[in-house]
Every structure is written in C-alpha cells, then in structure tokens.
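Hi L.,

You mentioned the student needs an example of a multi-chain input paired with its predicted structure. This one should do, with 446 residues in total across all chains.
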Amino acid sequence: MEFFNLFSQSRELRQALEQSRVRLYRMAYAWCHNAALADDLAQEALTKALRKSNQLRDPKARDAWLFSILTNCYRDHFRRQRDMDDIDDVELSDETTPESHSSRQEVVVQVRTAIARLPQGQRQVVTLVDLEGFSYIEVADILGVPIGTVMSRLCRARNALRALLVPQLERQNGTPGVALRRIK
Amino acid sequence: MNQEQKFSDEFLNAFVDDQLAPEEKGRAYISINNDEALNRQVCELRKMRDLVQFAYKDLPTVAAPGPRAGGLRTNVAAGLILATGVGLGWLLHQPSSAPEQAARVVAPPATVPTPPAATVATAEKPRVAPQSAKPLAVATSEVKVLFHLNSDKPERIQEVLDEAEALLKFYRAAGQIARVQVITNGDGLNLLRTDKSPDPERVRAMLKTYDNLSFAACQNTIDRLKREQGVTAQLLPGASVVDSGVAQIILRQQQGWIYIQV
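Structure written out for the whole complex:
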C-alpha cells in the first residue's frame, strides 16, 4: 500500500517537497558538517515526508513539519551511531584545502568551525533561526523543546559564536575593537 | 536604571530576530537607538546572524542533491516499466494452449499482406504458411495495417468496413497486438462525412469496440470540397484529420505499415 500512497500524493506537494531538498541539505550540513551524511539525512527526511504526507493537515506548517522530520532523522542517526564517533570531534575536512587561503573562504571555514564547536542543541537552534528564518515558536515545535529553551540556547550560541569569531575577524581586519562600531 | 540591565540577552536576540510584539519592538528600538552599548550589542548579534547565513550560502557539491532526487524518479519509472512488462507478458501469455499459440504465431504475416478477402477466411491457412522463420518475434511485434479508401461506391465502403472489422476481430481472438487505420481521401471521404456517410452508426460502433482502429480524413480533400463546392465537410465523431492522405500513406509505409487499397 505504501507504494500506492506514493502515487496518491498531489503533484503539487511532491514538487514542493523536492524543492525543499536543497534547504534540508543545507540544514543537515550545518548540523553535521559532513556532505555525504547531510545528503543522506536530507534524502531520508524527504522520503519520510513523502510517505507521511497525508499526516500534514495544514500546508502552511509544511516547512516546520519537514524540518521536524529532519530533526528526527538526525537524532535517530546519532542514536544508532553513538558508539561510532562524535560529530563534534570531526574536523572540517576543507580546513586545509587550497581554497581556504582566500579570505572569503577563510571566513566561511571559521564560521563553520565555530558552529561545529557549539553543543548540538545550540547548533540546531541557531541554524534553524538564522538559515531558515523560523520563528522561536516554530523552532520549539520542530525540536520538541519549550520556547524558553530555544531562547536561552540561541542566546548562548550567539554569545559563543561572538566570543570565537570576533577576535579572529578583528585579527584579520587588523583593526581591533573599532570595526564593529562602524557597521551601523 | 541602566539600559543593559533593562534588556536581557534573550530580549535583544528576539529583537534582532523580529520576534517581539510591535509595541515592544517600538519601545526597544527607541531605547537601543539612544544607547551606544546596546546598539553595539545588537550590531554584533546581527553580524553573527549574517555570518551564519554567509557560511552556508555555498555548500559542498556532493553528487547528491540533484541525482538523488532523480534517482527516486528513475527507480519509480523503472518500477513502472517493469510492472508494465510483467502485466503485458501475463496478458499475452493468457490464451496459451499450444495449437492456438501456433496459429497465432504464424498468422499475421501470412494473412495481412494477402488481398482482404482472404485475410480472415481460413484459420487453417496460417498453419501451413511455411516460412515464418521467427515465430516469437512475430508474435510479440505489432501488426500495423493501413486501408486506403478513395471511392464512395457503396460496395467499396462496405468492403473496407467488412475487411477492417474482420481483421480486427481475428487479431483480437488471436491475442495479436495490431493497429488498423482507414485513410480516406477523394470520394472516399464520404465515409466519414456526417451528411454523406452510408453507415455512420457502424463506424461509431467499430470505433467504440476497437480502440486500435482509427479513421483518418485527408485535409486536402476537405479543403478542395470547400474550395470547389463550397461545402464544409463535417466529420463523424472519432474521425481524425491528416494533412495529406497520400503523404500519410507514404509515411505509414515507411514506418512499416502494410498497405491495402480497397
């Protein structure tokens, strides 16, 4: 029956889900910083979403629903792989590539490294808010945590990023302390 | 009271992320604008948000996003093709008692090219047809027959309908995949004209019974009627129109159709 369910989906929903693939991949990559794994997670989330699409009552809540499926896939993956390796210990593979010599790429690597160092909960909250623009309520719904937890995790995550990145960026710019004032 | 004490970090984050109620946001905006330290704090938070967005703008291109999605489609398509193949094989395999199969296997090539009168008359004849060297290929390939009608003599019209129907009936009974098309031009167009057709009811019934049968009218003939006699030909439902009857006949022959002029 599941096979036929796949075909009973409306074409529109399927297209919308397929278009969400890049966004799911981006989010999964921001969480695990492993392209192959991110791809697998995005694929798994999409497959589950297609299979369970009849559970989606409100089309407006589709994005939150989709990312909550991704969250579950991510959680399940690490539940299965707990004894294998900790993603927080995995070093970013592109840190030593020739591309990292360009300053643009250097910033990208620095930010990704900083995000990878965040605890998983904080990393998820900050990426859901910043990359997808979800509201705090939606993030709470996606991750299944209270909204107060979302706010405190986000706050801690941004403080940690600031502590890690601001000195690095200032060093690069060679103008400690002043540059940030000029952003306004 | 110090402004920094008034606004917690959570509140400032909510301000940056546009999560405050409008009146709350308005008040915060005024306070932040008047306080350089707060202003700086908000700027830093915004910068962190921009940096996160910037860091994930371009992603490593795993052979993933496109191909995988396509992979699913390919799998589904492959599944469909497989299912169709299995279904078709099952259908074709159904009437498979040995003698019948032998008759079916050799029947089409022997019967089709012969003059219409001989086509269906004897079911025995195909059995002796000596050299249908590749019986399996014949049985599974489609037989395509083209009748050409360019006369409106009642006996000709009667003949083409009889022949086409008999042929279709035979192929259906034998389980042979076949397509039959009747092309009309010149006076033969009258077969398909609502005002002239001698037996519109039969044409309709045949089209309904056999979905592998089609009737085509020549557009050139229709144009000529209009031009020379001022008559707009109304065609029977289900009849199709081809640009040129002759060109269609040539094309069909090139495509391997068997041509029979009535």
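You could point out the following to them. Chain A touches chain B through 43 residues (CB under 8 Å). Chain A has one domain: 1-83+103-173.

Best wishes,
N.
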